[in-house]
Every structure is written in structure tokens, then in C-alpha cells.
């Protein structure tokens, strides 16, 4: 571990939420422009969270706050490992634990909306986890290591070898970012069939924790996307991954919400067709 | 200034209204008026909301819902009554089956007149509610400090 890696990891812990908030703000402006609206200011997500800390927190069960802190903690751990250049698999497992803790928090409250939301979230985890697991396996077959520092130091054409896995990852990125057509567990907009899904029973500082966790998640997912292009150097990798990241906004605005069964079927088809095929080809020829 | 004025989330409920005011209210969200530029978001969830927008003359059925939604909103919060019916009962005022006004049921902070209320008037009402919310947020902060001390 170099001093540079430690700096990057601690920078993630402190600046990660800020960067994630800017990504979320840009997302909202882009969405507004696509609907020919002006949209909120760039810092709107930060105003929202600061406001939530001013509000009272209605506690349904004291467990919910504990679970939400767990969600935030494991999200931070996942990103810390990623930006330290550590083991990609370990980062993935921390991300999965944090997702489970969010579901537990929603299950702990007794609103039927949040219960249905967390059931759907678990279903979505079944949909995206296989593909998310294939990503580190693909990197391992190409670079011979699960360590992020080794993947970054890989060959520039590794993204070509991992083309199918990249397509699969972009597909499940839509689920991870809770975008349409896969926003069935917790939508960004009110007035929908599930109210707010997972977050229905959280208010005040509890909801703020969920938002900060999502900011971390934005940066982590952008980091994963960056890994595919990392050997090209920052000048190429960062613009490409940002363009692909915000491509999700276009998908969000042009698709209606799917039900859970087609979501599961579709994502496993994509995982099999692109992810697994890519893995098999890599292990045969690499 | 507190941050609640920069990010007021709204809960909308039609308490036995004819939906005229509701259509005008939803028009505020469309590209022409686009209230999201002020950070206003229409949430469907009382636990996330800061401002309660109610239309209609309120009858016995909707009274329970209005009271319930109001109770579920965390402080600081404000209520805006929209349209003639929400203010006084409007043309239904003398009808035996309506309460005639939101303030017969829950405390109202801002009254937006009109049949139906214009989107500009509704936005103006929300802006006036922001000043009240700002006061309440400061008061709440003071109360929390007193409890902690």
C-alpha cells in the first residue's frame, strides 16, 4: 500500500459523499433538461440532506437507525477497499452486506410499502449479484489478480477482452442506481404505486443516512466502471466512464417500470448471454 | 436562513375536491412552471413531506385522511389550503355533508383563493409558506437545544 493509495482511500471517505452528491445533482439537472425543464440547482441533493437533518426523525423502531448506520458503514468500507487498491471481491461483498442491511432496515419498520419495497429489493439483488460477481472473475482471468491496484496496472486492451462483461455490468448498473425500468423497489418520484418503497418509513436524519449512503454508492459504482478503462489512463478513462454513467439517465427517462419477474428474467438472460459467455471465452483462449 | 426553504417537499391531498385545483397544482410540476427549480419535490409520502397542500371542502370520509396525513408529517411543517372550497367550503358551504374548509379540521397557515386557483397563485402560496417554515425550523432548533441542555 503506497502513501498515494491511502490518500485516495481517505479522500473517498471524506470527499466521496460530496462527489456523489454532485453526480446526483447533475443527474437531476440532466433529467430535467431531457424533459425540457430547467431543473434544480446542482447542489440540490446537499440542500435536501441538510434539510433532512433539520427535520424531526420519526422512529418506528430503534432498530431502523442501527441498520441504516450499518448500511452506511459497509458502503464506506466497500469504497475504502476499492480506492485503497485492495481486493475487488472483498469490496463487492461489503457492498452486498450494505444492501442487505438497507433491506433489514426497511423490513424492521411495519409499513406494508417498505415491506414490499424490501421484498422487491431482495429480488433485484438476486437479479444483479450474479453479474456483479462475474466482473471481478473477468478481471481475474485477464490480469491474474483480484487486486484493484493490479487491474489498474493491466493492459490497455483489457476492456476489449471484457466487452461482454462491460455490457452486462452496464445493464445491472441501471438496477444498482435504481433507474427506470428497474426502479421497482424505491422510486425517485412520488405518486407511484409503491409510494417510496424502501424508504417509506424513514424520515429526518434516518432518510439523510440513506441519501448519504447512495452518494457513496454512486462514487463506488463510477469507480467500478472506471476500472474497465483504467489502464487507458485518467484522460481517457474518466470521460468514457462519466459518459457511460450518465447514459443511465437517458435510459431512465425513456423507459417505463418493469415488474419483478421480467426484470429477473431479463437480467439473468443478459448475465448469461454476455457475462458467462465472455467468461467462458476468456478461460478457453486467454 | 434554514435549509428547509431550499428544499420544501410537498404532499398533495384532494379532500373531496372537484379535481380542478388538483389539475392546476399538478400543472406547477410541468415544464411550463417547473417548481423543481426551487427544489420543490412532490412526494407521495407524508413522512418525507414539509408542506401539506390540501384542496376540497372536506367531508367525514376525507377528514380522517387529512388528520392522519397531518399527524404523520414530522415537524417543522406547514399547511396550505388551495381553492375556494378549501378556504370556506365554496359553493358547497351550505351542503349538509361537508365541513366547509380545511381549517375546520387542521390548522392552516396559508390560504390560496381561486376557483380553480391559478398555478401562479399556488406557487405564491407555497413561497409564503416557506417564510413560515423558516420560522418554525428555527424555533424547533431552539427547542432541541433546550432539551439537550
What does this structure look like?
The complex is a heterodimer of chains A (286) and B (149). Chain A is mainly α and 286 residues long. Chain A has one domain. Chain A contains eleven helices and no strands. Chain A has helices at residues 3-34, 44-54, 63-84, 88-108, 112-143, 148-152, 158-161, 163-176, 205-229, 234-254, 260-285. Chain A is globular, with a radius of gyration of 19 Å. The two termini of chain A are 29 Å apart. Chain B has 149 residues and is of the alpha/beta class. Chain B has a single domain, classed as 3-Layer(aba) Sandwich (Rossmann fold). Chain B is built from four helices and five strands. Chain B has helices at 20-27, 60-72, 84-88, 119-148; strands spanning 9-14, 41-42, 51-55, 78-82, 110-112. Chain B has a five-stranded parallel β-sheet, with helices on both faces. Chain B is globular and about 50 Å long. The mean pLDDT of chain B is 90.
Task: Give the key terms.
heterodimer, A: 286 residues, B: alpha/beta, Rossmann fold, five-stranded parallel beta sheet, globular
Cα separation of the termini of chain A: 29 Å
Structural class of chain A: mainly alpha
Number of helices of chain A: 11
Number of strands of chain B: 5
GO molecular function, one term (chain B): metal ion binding
Domain NADH:ubiquinone oxidoreductase-like 20kDa subunit (chain B): 18-128
Pfam families (chain B): Oxidored_q6
Protein name (chain B): Ech hydrogenase subunit C
In brief:
With 286 residues, chain A is mainly alpha-helical. Chain A has helices at 3-34, 44-54, 63-84, 88-108, 112-143, 148-152, 158-161, 163-176, 205-229, 234-254, 260-285. With 149 residues, chain B is an alpha/beta fold.
Present the secondary structure layout.
The complex is a heterodimer of chains A (286) and B (149).
Chain A (H helix, E strand, L loop, with lengths): L2 H32 L9 H11 L8 H22 L3 H21 L3 H32 L4 H5 L5 H4 L1 H14 L28 H25 L4 H21 L5 H26 L1
Helix pairs in contact in A: 1-3, 1-9, 1-10, 2-9, 3-4, 3-9, 4-5, 5-8, 5-11, 8-11, 9-10
Chain B lengths: L8 E6 L5 H8 L13 E2 L8 E5 L4 H13 L5 E5 L1 H5 L21 E3 L6 H30 L1
Parallel strand pairs in B: 1-2, 1-3, 3-4, 4-5
Amino acid at each position: 500500500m503506497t502513501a498515494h493509495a491511502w490518500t485516495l482511500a481517505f479522500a473517498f471517505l471524506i470527499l466521496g459523499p460530496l462527489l456523489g452528491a454532485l453526480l446526483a445533482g447533475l443527474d437531476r439537472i440532466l433529467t430535467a433538461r431531457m424533459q425540457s425543464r430547467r431543473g434544480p440547482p446542482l447542489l440540490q441533493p446537499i440542500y435536501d440532506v441538510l434539510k433532512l437533518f433539520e427535520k424531526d426523525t420519526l422512529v418506528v423502531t430503534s432498530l431502523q437507525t442501527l441498520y441504516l448506520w450499518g448500511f452506511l458503514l459497509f458502503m464506506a468500507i466497500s469504497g475504502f477497499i476499492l480506492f485503497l487498491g485492495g481486493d475487488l471481491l472483498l469490496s463487492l461483498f461489503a457492498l452486498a452486506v450494505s444492501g442487505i442491511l438497507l433491506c433489514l432496515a426497511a423490513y424492521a419498520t411495519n409499513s406494508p410499502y417498505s415491506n414490499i419495497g424490501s421484498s422487491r429489493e431482495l429480488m433485484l439483488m438476486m437479479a444483479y449479484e450474479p453479474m456483479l460477481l462475474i466482473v471481478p472473475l473477468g478481471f481475474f482471468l485477464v490480469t491474474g489478480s483480484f487486486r484493484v491496484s493490479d487491474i489498474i496496472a493491466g493492459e490497455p486492451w483489457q476492456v476489449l477482452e471484457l466487452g461482454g462483461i462491460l455490457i452486462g455490468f452496464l445493464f445491472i448498473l441501471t438496477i444498482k442506481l435504481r433507474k427506470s425500468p428497474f426502479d421497482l423497489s424505491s422510486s425517485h418520484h412520488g405518486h407511484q404505486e409503491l409510494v417510496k418503497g424502501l424508504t417509506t418509513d424513514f424520515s429526518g436524519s434516518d432518510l439523510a443516512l440513506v441519501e448519504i449512503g447512495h452518494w457513496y454508492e454512486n462514487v463506488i459504482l463510477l469507480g467500478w466502471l472506471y476500472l474497465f478503462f483504467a489502464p487507458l489512463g485518467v484522460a481517457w478513462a474518466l470521460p468514457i466512464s462519466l459518459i457511460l454513467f450518465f447514459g443511465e439517465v437517458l435510459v431512465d427517462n425513456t423507459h417505463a417500470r418493469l415488474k419483478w419477474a421480467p426484470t429477473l428474467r431479463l437480467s439473468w438472460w443478459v448475465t448469461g448471454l454476455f457475462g458467462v459467455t465472455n467468461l467462458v471465452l476468456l478461460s478457453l483462449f486467454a | 436562513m434554514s435549509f428547509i426553504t431550499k428544499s420544501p417537499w410537498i404532499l398533495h391531498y384532494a379532500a373531496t375536491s372537484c379535481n380542478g385545483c388538483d389539475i392546476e397544482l399538478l400543472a406547477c410540476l410541468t415544464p411550463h412552471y417547473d417548481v423543481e427549480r426551487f427544489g420543490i419535490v412532490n412526494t407521495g409520502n407524508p413522512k418525507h413531506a414539509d408542506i401539506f397542500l390540501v384542496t376540497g371542502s372536506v367531508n367525514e370520509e376525507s377528514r380522517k385522511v387529512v388528520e392522519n396525513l397531518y399527524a404523520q408529517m414530522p415537524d417543522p411543517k406547514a399547511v396550505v389550503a388551495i381553492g375556494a372550497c378549501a378556504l370556506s367550503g365554496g359553493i358547497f358551504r351550505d351542503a349538509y355533508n361537508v365541513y366547509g374548509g380545511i381549517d375546520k379540521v387542521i390548522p392552516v397557515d396559508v390560504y390560496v383563493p381561486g376557483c380553480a386557483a391559478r398555478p401562479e397563485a399556488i406557487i405564491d402560496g407555497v413561497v409564503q409558506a416557506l417564510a413560515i417554515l423558516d420560522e418554525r425550523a428555527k424555533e424547533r432548533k431552539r427547542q432541541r437545544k433546550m432539551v439537550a441542555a
